[in-house]
């Protein structure tokens, strides 16, 4: 990744949040996150002036894109920006990255600019197939277990409106930092409520091995809390740890029937509507 360009993206992000930010404050904020990569005050002043003049391009004179050059989304830059502000809207991210809003989908899940005919057909067949199973009595929603992950902030301050008398100052709200502390929540639930949840340890990531270990603990929780259930149906998305051969073998061992979740279909996840 071009770090100089990324730092300019971060500076633009700060400017969009507060267009009156000084070069000194901008430099301090950048150095909090990237002490070895942050801009000095002079560089910040130069780029802030460009932004205030209406030029929000982050390419320097030497790296201006050529005519016809393909537009490429840098996933690493996107990830870092989301970590800086997990509550950022799709429109804000698109503006900072200089991409079309249609490049992003709801809920922070990135999808292709255009779904192929095969993608659309797969989504249609999966949705109609699940509906037909339900109508035929082959899919009881009370038998479905679902799982999803969500980043949880240690401090989640939300600015809210409040009633105040005339000329009375509003209650101050702390401004979140650029790199808030957070933890990943892994959550399993069904129509009866929560079944099992885990918080990922600091520095740990979800691999197929880690996910299989979690599934064993979920199975134990099901045996304790849902002993009356005979046939388990399971719905999770198609992230790599979920679709690996090791995970598929584990699910077969547990005897769970996995329901289809087509690619690029964030709206298939019930957790985004009923849990988070």
From TrEMBL:
Gene3D superfamilies cross-referenced by the UniProt entry: 1.10.10.1450, Ribonuclease H-like superfamily/Ribonuclease H (3.30.420.10)
Pfam families per the UniProt record, alphabetical: HTH_48, Transposase_1
GO CC terms of this entry: condensed chromosome; nucleus; site of double-strand break
PANTHER family for the chain: HISTONE-LYSINE N-METHYLTRANSFERASE SETMAR, MARINER MOS1 TRANSPOSASE-LIKE PROTEIN
GO molecular function: DNA topoisomerase binding; double-stranded DNA binding; histone H3K36 methyltransferase activity; histone H3K4 methyltransferase activity; single-stranded DNA binding; single-stranded DNA endodeoxyribonuclease activity
Lineage: Eukaryota, Metazoa, Ecdysozoa, Nematoda, Chromadorea
The protein's name in its UniProt record: Mos1 transposase HTH domain-containing protein
Lineage top rank: taxon: Eukaryota
Mos1 transposase HTH domain sequence ranges: 4-55
GO biological process: DNA double-strand break processing; DNA integration; double-strand break repair via nonhomologous end joining; mitotic DNA integrity checkpoint signaling; replication fork processing
Xref: InterPro entries: Mos1_HTH, RNaseH_sf, Transposase-MT_Hybrid, Transposase_1
